[in-house]
Structure formats: C-alpha cells, structure tokens
Write a structure and sequence with these properties.
Shape: globular
Mean pLDDT: 96
Radius of gyration: 16 Å
CATH architecture: 3-Layer(aba) Sandwich
Number of helices: 5
Number of domains: 1
Largest sheet: 8 strands, mixed
Distance between the termini: 28 Å
Order of helices and strands: EEHHHEEEHEHEE
Strand content: 25-35%
Helix content: 25-40%
CATH superfamily: Gcn5-related N-acetyltransferase (GNAT)
Low-confidence stretches: none
Strand order of the largest sheet: 1-2-3-4-5-6-8-7
Structural class: alpha+beta
Bound molecules: coenzyme A
CATH class: Alpha Beta
C-alpha cells in the first residue's frame, strides 16, 4: 500500500524496495545518527552483521515482519521503519508481543512529521498482530524517548545493546495495546 504524505511517498507494510536500497539506507541513517559514538572497527562489524542486504532480504521476505519506506519526489528512500515479533531480552516476555525494531529518517528530513506518520502506520499494524508492543532506545536519545512517551510507551527495563564489541546502555520501553472489548 502506498500513500502520499506531503512531498513523500510512503510504501508498506510490504514495500516494493530492494534489500540493497534498504541496506544502504539502514547503514547511512545509523552512521548519521550514531556513527560518532563508536570505534571504526565496532561500527564496521555492526553494519556488516545487522545492516547487510541479506538481513534486509530476510526481513522483506518474512511475512511476520513489516517494513515502511518513505521516498522523496525523486524516488530516493529517505526513511524507514521495521516492525515485527519482539526479539528483545524482556524479562518474562508475554506471548503475542511485537516490536518497533528500526526507525530512522535522514537528518535533512527530520522534525517535519514524517516519523510520526510512519509510527502511526506501524502501530496500527502492530495493534492488529500483538497484545503489547516493545522497543529499545539508546539511553541518551532523549528526543526519541520523548516521542515514544507521547505515544504511551513506558520504560520498563535497561539492557546493553551491542554495536560490535561496544556495549550501549538502552531502555526497553513498553506500550500496552488496549483491545476494544
Ligand atoms: C526518531 C525519528 C525517526 C523521528 O522522525 P521525525 O520525522 O524526525 O519526527 P517527527 O517530525 O514526526 O516528530 C518529531 C518528534 O520526533 C522526535 N525527534 C525529532 N528529531 C529527532 C532526532 N534527531 N532524534 C530522535 N528523535 C527526534 C522529537 O520527539 C520530536 O518531537 P518534538 O520536536 O515535538 O520534541 C527521526 O528523528 C530520526 O531518524 N532520528 C535519528 C535516529 C533515531 O533516533 N531513531 C530512533 C532510534 S530508537
């Protein structure tokens, strides 16, 4: 399904995008947002392990996962969001748990509402599949935490997210899905 959002075209939950395009976008947005935090060797190991085309091919081919991609007028991918079954180390993870797995917009397109539109679409899809939704966020990423808190997410646990051999302190946040009775 595609929709227009301002100057952008949003395509998902099964977008017509290649794994190579997503791999490039995934790596570029991670580097732009957090690359400065890591040693080159850790960053390289992480991008190879977590943002390679084979990783994105698996996500695109597996119906348990959903991907939304935003593209500008030239058709250039400028943001994306991945959602699916929860794979976070949540203590006593209940069944039917979902996760907001990856969420990035290129810096030059941030702060204009595009992220919230992707989040709205993803949370609607996640509500359909799961009873509770989790995400993890870097402990110093206060802006993103503010956005998630506005969507009803609460911090429930801390853990370390590995970027190569570098351990990053992260919060796991949870959003309870109110099932319509
Ligand atoms: C988080 C992100 C996807 C939100 O998309 P967006 O299009 O910028 O967001 P919107 O314009 O729809 O909403 C704005 C809200 O997003 C949050 N936000 C804005 N810029 C942000 C940034 N650079 N990093 C994190 N969150 C940001 C703020 O809470 C902001 O609300 P406010 O300005 O009223 O405080 C985007 O900012 C981004 O890619 N940030 C860098 C990577 C990141 O932090 N990803 C999330 C990892 S858990």
């Amino acid at each position: 399904m595609t929709e227009l959002y301002g100057d952008f075209r949003i395509d998902g939950p099964t977008p017509a995008v290649s794994a190579d395009t997503l791999s490039g976008l995934g790596a570029e947005t991670f580097i732009q947002s957090f690359g400065h935090l890591y040693a080159a060797s850790d960053l390289e190991k992480f991008l190879h392990e977590k943002h390679g085309p084979e990783t994105y091919k698996r996500l695109l081919d597996d119906p348990a996962f959903a991907v939304w991609v935003a593209a500008d007028n030239d058709g250039t991918a400028v943001g994306y969001l991945v959602a699916g079954p929860c794979d976070l180390p949540v203590e006593a993870l209940p069944p039917r748990s979902g996760e907001l797995i990856r969420f990035y917009i290129m810096p030059e397109h941030q702060g204009g509402g595009l992220g919230r539109r992707l989040l709205d679409l993803a949370l609607f899809w996640l509500h359909e599949q799961f009873d509770q939704v989790y995400l993890s966020v870097y402990s110093e990423n206060l802006k993103a935490q503010r956005l998630y808190e506005r969507y009803g997410f609460e911090k429930i646990q801390k853990y370390f997210f590995m970027v190569g051999n570098h351990a990053d302190p992260e919060f796991i946040m949870k959003r309870m899905v109110q099932k319509q009775s």
